Amino acid sequence: MTAPDTQTIPGFEVQGKIATGGFAAIFKAVDLETWQVVAIKMLYPEKAKNPAYVSRFTTEIQLLLNIDSPWIVKGLKRGAVHGLPYVVMEYVPCLPLSHLIANQGPIIGPVARRVLIDSTKGVRVLWDKGFVHCDLKPDNLLVTGHDQVKLCDLGLAEPSGNQTRELSETTAGTPEFMSPEQALGRLDLDHRADVYSLGIILYQMIFGRLPFSGKRDDVLMAQVRETPFIDDVTFEIPAWARKLLPRMLAKERDKRPTADEMLRELES
């Protein structure tokens, strides 16, 4: 199979690779039928040999094609070339939120609020489909030139309350943004795990850093046992964030707010 870096896709003019992920690469291309600029996500050759990765990618493709939301990157069509499955998506001129945080430091209150509103709306669409994202992080939030946010990378999305996963899959994702229940390897994850991850994202936007970092196992343990430090001396924390953040980061998931509660408070 041809390596993704040199891949040609019939019907498209591939202009170059624009991103890489854990099991797929993303290319910018032109659809030669519609002349639309698109993004194409394609599974790596070595991952295409693994049924587990193919299954995850298939789930992601189905979600992208079945969801039509301004807050989630839209899937347009699917295909395969030389045995490598791919999905064609809308091309979004944007920067990932992680880039903005890395280059600007703390994100000012109104922008952080806008990001959280759009992110919550996007992930709520996924929840309404019966799925948990399981890997919310700034890398997966695309910020457009109009400060609109689109959710991307649904590669780890799982049906809510999925009890059929292997134990080795329970902590797949990014430890720094995992909920306590995901860090513990619980199988019955639901939307409240994503609420916690959004809380970590909000924390990083406000303070310009993560509450927990270091070795993977240490971070996972901190997510379970430690309370993120709210530095209200060094930083001026918006009133809405001061009220919402501790609840989003509650260790007991029953104490976290719902999407509707979050949006009511954020949009009031």
Topology:
Elements: E1 12-20, E2 24-31, E3 37-43, H1 51-66, E4 75-81, E5 84-90, E6 94-96, H2 97-104, H3 109-128, E7 131-132, E8 141-144, E9 149-151, E10 158-159, H4 180-183, H5 191-207, H6 216-225, H7 239-248, H8 259-267
Antiparallel strand pairs: 1-2, 2-3, 3-5, 4-5, 6-8, 7-10, 8-9
Key attributes of the depicted protein:
single chain; 268 residues; alpha+beta; Phosphorylase Kinase, domain 1; Transferase(Phosphotransferase), domain 1; 2 domains; 5-stranded antiparallel β-sheet; 3-stranded antiparallel β-sheet; 8 helices; 10 strands; globular
Summarize this entry quickly:
The protein has helices at 51-66, 97-104, 109-128, 180-183, 191-207, 216-225, 239-248, 259-267, and strands spanning 12-20, 24-31, 37-43, 75-81, 84-90, 94-96, 131-132, 141-144, 149-151, 158-159. It has 268 residues and is α+β, with helices and mostly antiparallel strands.
What oligomeric assembly is this protein in? single chain
Query: Largest beta sheet, briefly?
Result: 5 strands, antiparallel
- Tell me the series of helices and strands, N- to C-terminal: EEEHEEEHHEEEEHHHHH
Structural class: alpha+beta
CATH architecture of the largest domain: Orthogonal Bundle
